[in-house]
Amino acid sequence: MGVWKQTVAALSVAMGMVGCAGDVTTETAPELGSGVAELVAPNGRNLNGRNLNGRNLNTTELGQTLVSVDFAGARLGQSVLNGVRLEGSVFHGAAAGTAVSGHAFLGARFTGNLGDGGTVELRVDSVEPGTGADADVWVYGVSFFDAAESLWKPTCVAADGSAVGAIAVAGRWDHRQGVEGGGAKVDDAGRFTFACEGAAIAKCVRFGYRPWASTAEGQSLADHHQACTRMVRADFCGDGTSHTEDGNWVNLYDSVGVQTDSEAWRHEAEWDVDGARCFTQSTRAPQPVSCPGRTQPDTCGKSAHFQTGTLLMSEVPPAP
């Protein structure tokens, strides 16, 4: 059984114009501490367990939220990178007519998009290939340029301020809360997400729901990954609003063999890409949850519902 312990990842992006490379005071590229390994338990296709949930989709709103990253305009040294794309979580492209991929993206610079419509310059400081069951999950150390201080700072940080890595995931997410479409995955071919370890998007990759992967039967895991981001954040109403607090235990399972039910806990909810298809009175929410316009079915937590659209089910520990 894999037991997962969460440390909240945060993004600290200063507001201002994107900085240039010349005449810039540059801090030493932050090293990824061992905290990355502590953020997640090794999680193969059949290794499940009790998972500690958190509230954040990707990063906390400290200053501004990094909502996406552009493929176009990426640079490597003096060369413009053309045709940049992701195969799984590995970058591929061409520089000066030569194909480059993987480790060759060390030092690459990208343009990040902020929640207020602004942009920020990002730099890849380290490239760490995946290993074992996570061989296709590469982790990148990423810095952003703080124009106000003319410094490069880690884009993803743990609660103690230490740098943690990011998984590159194709597409972007709608970071709005309390509105239709909030929390939704947007299949944007021109943009990707640097998903910080410890927040929902990366967590769900670590749980085994790689959105670029498929089951042995050929079923894409993209929808399971999106349902997982809803579940992790307790986004019951599917509007981007989290109804939980950091530090609550939750057990999740599916019918495709990625996570299996190992706990005799209380049923909480059934999930799909749009949030909870139903939920019981036993939830992680500190206050009662109401989703106007959504009809609750008579029963919730029945395994037969996997055949009618449910992708994931969640459970919470027995009442003390």
Automatic annotation (TrEMBL):
Keyword Transit peptide: no
InterPro entries per record: ADYC
Record key words, sorted: Signal
Signal peptide: 1-21
Keyword Signal: yes
Annotated ADYC domain residues: 102-284
Pfam families, A to Z: ADYC
Protein name (Swiss-Prot/TrEMBL): ADYC domain-containing protein
Species this protein is from: Pseudomyxococcus hansupus
